[in-house]
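Annotated sample (chain length 258).
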Amino acid sequence: MPWSRIALATALVLGLAGCATAPSASGPGTPTPTPSSGTVLDIAVPAATAALPLVDQDGRTTTLASLRGTTVVLVDFLTLCQEVCPLTTANVRAVSEAVDRAGRSGDVRILEATVDPERDTPARLAAYQKLYGAHANWSLVTGRPEDIAALWKSFGVAYDRTPNTESPAPKDWLTGKPLTYDVEHQDIVIVIGPDGHERWLVDDTPRVSGASPVPTALQSFLSADGRANETAPPDPSWTPQDVEAAIAYVTGRPLATD
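Output written by the structure step:
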């Protein structure tokens, strides 16, 4: 479920101060245009945040610090979200495919980091990613609850665990067990430049298309709100092309696919 955007206001105000000067990685020729959606930023990721250990779907530990020198797309989600996250991951998968087609998997990495570390184990992340089809540039990560909390607090992303009061309770798409709680959260996509600075952010509902479908197993898991978000998302919303434009801006290189 989406969370109030108020918690992000301070970060956005700070980011707007850098909108006119936030540089993209430059090369010869015409500068890459500033993205038409989202907010351009120039905020250094704190060293303590970059050092937080994150565990991917294969059980391997990584950090944002270890990815410095690459462009990182950082997204929050949980595998048991019924309203937005299956749509978010559908769009993330489409971005991952565009990066792969462009031969850019070595310099652009995508991290979906959970807001539900108690349930989102590496094995569950692997099962969730398998529904979409994995790419080498795209990892799903979890970690100790205190590390995940510190990660998202640093980026100004709010989330909160709430009891599930629905009757009957929705059932886990993987185990079939009734769900006892949900996690309300913001829906954020952040692009971090090779220099370790936040360079772009969007805080809206994803807009999916035929090019980024939600897997069948999760279609049936969507709530009524989730189905409404899939067919008629509220404006403003973001698409895979918006994230690809942000990557192009940050790296100074479009994701050419021809």
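Annotation: The CA atoms of residues 122 and 189 lie 21 Å apart.
Annotation: Helices lie at 9-16, 47-50, 85-101, 122-132, 145-154, 216-219, 224-231, 240-251.
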